[in-house]
Amino acid sequence: MRLAASTLALLLAAAPAAAQEVPDPPAPVDLAPATVRFRANVPDLQVLYMQDPVLDDSGGAIAVRAAPPGRYSELCVAPCDVDLPQTHLGLAVRRRDHLHRFDAPLGVDGPTGVRIDWDDRDLLRLAGVLTLVGGGAVGLSIIAATLALALDDGALAGGLVGGIGLLGAAVTVGVLLVLTEDAASFSVTPLPSSGAQLFSAEWR
Fold first, then answer.
1. Among the listed residues 188, 184, 198, 194, the one whose alpha carbon sits nearest the alpha carbon of residue 38
2. Radius of gyration of the chain (CA)
3. Is the N end or the C end of the chain the one with fewer CB atoms within 10 Å?
4. How far apart are alpha carbons 134 and 5 in whole angstroms?
5. pLDDT tens-digit profile of 133-154?
6. Which helix (H) or strand (E) holds 116?
């Protein structure tokens, strides 16, 4: 009887101690800033970023919610290496007066290489100017010649329709080309761990 009572007393004394046992905390996660290397296909490309962007789930793909240019801060001018927090960032690039904001966020989860491809469309804009000037001049010339030389109403109507049509087409196509914006894209890959590869022609 005394043995049973002693055993019960020991169990009751051990219960609070067991209830107070706390599991070991999880090992800390190293979220130290990581090196991000930016390389571009054109020189002097400004790289901008936005901390804490609002991310939307768009059809299964994460996208950065549109934000005004003022939310972006200049990071560096490619080619460059910077240390960034391991998180998702909004990314944008600027060349001259053209700014391109990427819909896809830049995810940094370790040393990262970012390749930026800038699509310069200066030739398209130049073609737009030439279309406006050349097509507009030809259209106006046809209209002027028709008004001066048409011998009857049929010739007058035909010449005016042709000249006005050419002028309208030149203005429409020319304006669309002149307003064409440059485009850009980027791809992400882990940086090589080997020093020889890290400073190879591909990544230096």
1. 188
2. 33
3. N
4. 109
5. 998 888 888 888 888 776 777 7
6. strand 112-119
